[in-house]
Specification:
Length: 190
């Protein structure tokens, strides 16, 4: 049913009364409905899967920080001392906030990350000092090189290729911590 501002007042009143009647009927039906068994009623509801893609993990973690006005030199000192003792999440939050709110720092961080990303990666096989690399090490190097160069990320699942992997690893250079998950799968080649 379409409504517009040009409808006569009688049509608008009719629509209002029909909507009010529908609302009364729905409320009455809800009041008469029998309650569910207690085992179902007290079960916690799981968050919908779609919500996981709306709230990114990076943003969720930042909600743990205090208000910006509460971040004093004493708070920063406590955070850095805590990082020395092993509390790395508050340290990451602090450095992430610094990068988000300090334009000059963000520019410098991005310059360094982009300079590293623009370099051509060179993979070398493992070898002991003053020794030649073994044929097995060369084969493994070729396998790892091919796997990293031919990554097939799914952007819809927030996955990235080799360049994104390097950028995420470089986060540890500035924030002290970088956690990555690599999903491997086997494909046939040749």
């Amino acid at each position: 049913m379409e409504t517009s501002l040009t409808q006569p007042p009688a049509a608008k009143a009719n629509l209002r009364s029909r909507l009010a009647g529908f609302a009364r009927t729905a409320l009455a039906a809800a009041a008469q409905r029998k309650p569910r068994p207690s085992s179902i009623a007290h079960r916690p509801l799981a968050a919908p899967q779609a919500l996981a893609t709306i709230i990114r993990p990076q943003a969720r973690e930042r909600w743990l920080l205090p208000q910006v006005a509460a971040i004093t030199p004493t708070y920063i000192e406590m955070t850095l001392r805590g990082a020395l003792a092993g509390a790395h999440i508050p340290q990451w939050e602090l450095f992430n906030l610094m990068e988000d709110t300090w334009p000059r720092l963000r520019k410098n961080v991005l310059e360094l990350k982009m300079a590293v990303r623009s370099r051509r990666p060179v993979f070398e096989a493992y070898r002991d000092e003053d020794a030649e690399e073994s044929p097995t090490a060369t084969e493994r190097m070729k396998l790892v090189s091919a796997a990293l160069r031919h990554m097939q990320p799914d952007p819809a699942a927030d996955e990235g290729a080799f360049d994104d992997l390097v950028t995420d690893i470089l986060d540890a250079w500035f924030k002290g911590v970088s956690v990555l998950e690599i999903d491997w799968h086997i494909t046939q080649t040749r």
